[in-house]
Amino acid sequence: MKKLIxxxxxxxxxxxxxQDTIIPLWPKDKIPNxxxxxxxxxxxxxxxxxxxxxxxxxxxxxxxxxxxxxxxxMVIFWRRISYFGL
Length: 86
What we know:
Helix content is about 20%, strand content about 20%. The protein is of the alpha+beta class and about 90 residues long.
């Protein structure tokens, strides 16, 4: 039981402290094809974090410790396309 608690706390702390930098993709008022609206960005956490109605897109950078840094990078882009009324 102690191992389970330790692993849970460790996993949560790695998740919280691993984010290093948030970089905006475009300057605040220069987002291409941006339509002004009253919608607010929504964050829903169920099994995973789902973010919708994004108003200011960003890139989140997660850097490894200096011990594990190899100089290589991985970029993940994910896009879900939904079709309504089919």
